[in-house]
Amino acid sequence: MLSRDQVKAVQQRLDEVTRRLYFFDNDVDGLASFLLLNSQWPAIDFQCLLSGPSDEELYFTKLQETGFQLAVILDRPMVSERVIQALEQVLWIDHHPPVTAYGAQYVNPRKENGNIPTACLAQALLPNTNPQTLLLSALGAAWDYYLPSHFTKLREQFPSLIDTNSTNLDIIHFDSQFGYLLRLLTFLLTGKKSEIHSNIERLRRIEDIRTVFTDTSLQQHYQEKERKYEQLITQAQEEALAMNDALLVFTYAAHDSYTGYLANHLRYLFGKTVVVAKTFPDSNRYTMSIRATDDIDLHTVLPKAFDGLRGDYGGHEHACGAHIAKAEFDTCINRLQELLQ
Ligand SMILES: [Mn+2]
Fold it and tell me: How far away, in angstroms, is 118 Cα from ligand 1 center?
């Protein structure tokens, strides 16, 4: 976890300003990190980022719109020098493999004690904890397939939510109410940028995250995305059953991105390494989510699969995001098939 000095230094940085602008990853770890820090150090504005290269522009758009004293970047593996220099005052908290921070105040426990999801780091920064902050940090951590030490205690506080005794994260994800809440939050981060923003605006004003089970507006958004997701997972399962390869590949065309959740779900259902790739008709690229079985390290495999191709990837040992030119997708997949044999 973070040292006392690290915690103090970050708290001080957050305390000494009032105009904080938050940027965070568009998954439940990023969202939970934001909700936790925002509860103690409120944001004047925020931006949920997207996967892929167009997201750099989102920093610059916000920069022009908002007068702020400190930019807080959460759960992002990479931030360019250009962005950090433009934002000037930057606190960057992350748990992906450490990279150059270009002068930002950079907090990354991987440098000392390994992978701790950003939501757990955010919770450790709060002066006080309560059942809600513990629940939020557990949601963020579980999204990243990390079981926080307080999970068992949380089960006593939220027995109807954590309705499984299992500590297997696949079971927690796909066979518990807690996992259903993860799915709900994930789909609230799916859709048009403006819709996602208003969902988060709503989320940051509720005291109890379980309110998403009953909030009419959030439920409406969720149900719409759920219907689309059901179609995709049904199609993916049919295709997967007809496939014999070690690598499970599913592609689809849509504007909404379900790749991360689909890839987790398919790996759980089929126990294989999975690539889910999304595109849309006028695009010349694929956005991909890759999930590997326990015996595969993506940090070893992906450099070989992407070598010389017009694409990029980043993330964890067993879970990465990537993008690649459409024309080179097949080459990349063929290489992956060979590497996994
Ligand atoms: Mn994360």
Answer: 6
> What does the domain layout of the chain look like in residue ranges?
4-219, 245-339
35 CA to centre of ligand 1 in angstroms: 14
Q: How far is the CA of 316 from the centre of ligand 1 (A)?
A: 9
Q: Give residue-wise pLDDT tens across range 129-188.
A: 999 999 999 999 999 999 999 999 999 999 999 999 999 999 999 999 999 999 999 999
Fold exhibited by the domain 245-339? Diaminopimelate Epimerase; Chain A, domain 1 (3.10.310)
Tens-digit pLDDT profile for residues 285-323: 999 999 999 999 999 999 999 999 999 998 889 999 999
Number of Cβ atoms within 10 Å of the Cβ of 3:
11
**Residue with structure tokens 């000037």?**
88
More confident residue, 114 or 299: 299
Q: b/e map of 205-242 (b: 16 or more CB within 10 Å)?
A: eeeebbebeebeebeebbeebeeebeebbeebeeebee
Q: Measured in angstroms, how far is the CA atom of residue 76 from the centroid of ligand 1?
A: 7
- Give CA–CA dist 122/140, Å, rounded: 10
* pTM, rounded to two decimals: 0.94
* d(CA 243, ligand 1 centre) in Å: 31
pLDDT digits (tens, 9 = 90+) for 198-234: 999 999 999 999 999 999 999 999 999 999 999 999 9
Cα of 155 from ligand 1 centre, angstroms: 22
User: Cα of 50 to ligand 1 centre, how many Å?
Assistant: 13
Mean pLDDT of all residues in the chain? Answer: 94
Structure-token pair, residue 176: 């518990």
Phi, psi of 33 (to 5 degrees): -60, -45
> What gap in Å lies between CA 318 and CA 320, rounded to an integer?
7
CATH number given to 4-219:
3.90.1640
String of b and e for 27-66 (b: at least 16 CB within 10 Å)?
Answer: bbbbbbbbbbbbbebebeebbbbbbeeebeebbeebbeee
